[in-house]
Amino acid sequence: MMPPLGTHSPLVRVGMPLVSGELLDYGVASGLPMMLSANAFARVDRNHEFVGFKLAAAQALPREADLCLDSAGFTASALYGDYRWTVREYYDLVSAGPWTWHSAMDLCVEDEVAGDAGTRRLRIDMTIARYFECRNEASKRGCDAPVPVLQGRFADEYVRCAEEMGIPADAPLVGVGSVCRRHLHGPDGLFAIVAALDRALVPGVGLHLYGAKGGALRALRERGLLHRIRSVDSMAWDYSVRRSTPTGRTQFARALAMVDWHARQLAYLSRATAQTVPVLQPAPRLQGDVEIADEAVGAALADLCASNDISYRDATAHLPMDRAMVYAVLRNHGVKAFEDEDPEDDYGLGILYPAVREAFVAAGRIAAA
């Protein structure tokens, strides 16, 4: 049973890089809440191709421990472009372990992997689709429902993601992705994102911030937003150990650093903070014509993925060329090229024409028919 929101300090989960051994055992013995990555369970062949999960390792995890499973979306995107495993294969791992909760599979939108509006929209829409796939697979297998993971760069994108997922009022937890290195201020800052979700979600739905640390939590508390945060997780402790001791590290030394880091995070959160500073609601985000069109192209490709007409990898391959074609029409003819609902000439755009036109109508750039 989770405590009511606003009556607790957020739970700080330690990112655990190993799925067995002394480091994991020490974390369990110390009573640390931990987050494990699906990527750590992956088995690969001599060509480094994914061949399944180490299910025996998941089955051997101690049932009394507080362990959660992350789908490893950032690692999958940064290293491979997409997941190496299917939803069904992921749920082989989910079914094998004693997880307190597990994340739905999501597609992160950090600048390294989604630096433009079209790619970001495609990945957000695919995150929504993957959530429903995961929820259906969990139901088939009798697993707990996955924790939905919201994605976006700007606050309004996170809110749209939540609305299209249809977060139920009794959802115990909702994940917020792509915030690991997020700055605090501005329309795409952590303050604006959490404040927008606080307004959009019903009371009682808690947030898990992936990769957030104590400093961000204290800043959220100073802005009166900590009441919505249920938990965070971080691998920062291990990054610090590897930087300070590049060679000769022992598992015991890492274990001591892990426990010390967790204690310092809790102590940092317990310190008194300054008077609460209200967060002002940011002005609506203004999009240029190119960004509106770019996002529409990403949405159109996501629709094709959802209907199984193309794969996600095909969509990412098509996106640059489709974007270039739309840009050429805008450059040569302007927004007025999309004024006709049933044009004699769609400039060779096919299904992209109505998608871009609809986006311009919604943005008030052209009049509806």
How would you portray this structure in words?
The protein is α/β, with parallel strands linked by helices and 369 residues long. It folds into 2 domains: 260 residues, TIM Barrel; 74 residues, no CATH class. The chain is 45% helix and 11% strand. Strand 8, helix 7 and strand 9 form a beta-alpha-beta unit. Helix 4 crosses helix 5. The termini are far apart.
> Tell me about the biggest sheet?
8 strands, parallel
Helical coverage, percent range: 40-55%
Q: For the record, what is the CATH homologous superfamily label of the largest domain? A: Queuine tRNA-ribosyltransferase-like
CATH third-tier fold name of the largest domain: TIM Barrel
The shape is globular
How many H/I helical runs?
A: 13
Distance between the termini: 53 Å
Supply the key terms.
369 residues; alpha/beta; TIM Barrel; 2 domains; 8-stranded parallel beta sheet; globular; DeoxyPurine in DNA protein A domain-containing protein; DpdA
Summarize the structure.
This protein has 369 residues and is of the alpha/beta class.
What layout of secondary structure does this protein have?
Blueprint: E1 11-16, H1 22-29, E2 34-37, E3 42-44, E4 50-53, H2 55-59, E5 67-70, H3 73-80, H4 87-96, E6 101-102, H5 117-141, E7 149-150, H6 155-165, E8 173-176, H7 190-200, E9 206-210, H8 214-222, E10 229-234, H9 236-244, H10 251-270, H11 289-306, H12 312-333, H13 352-362
Parallel strand pairs: 1-2, 1-10, 2-5, 5-6, 7-8, 8-9, 9-10
Antiparallel strand pairs: 3-4
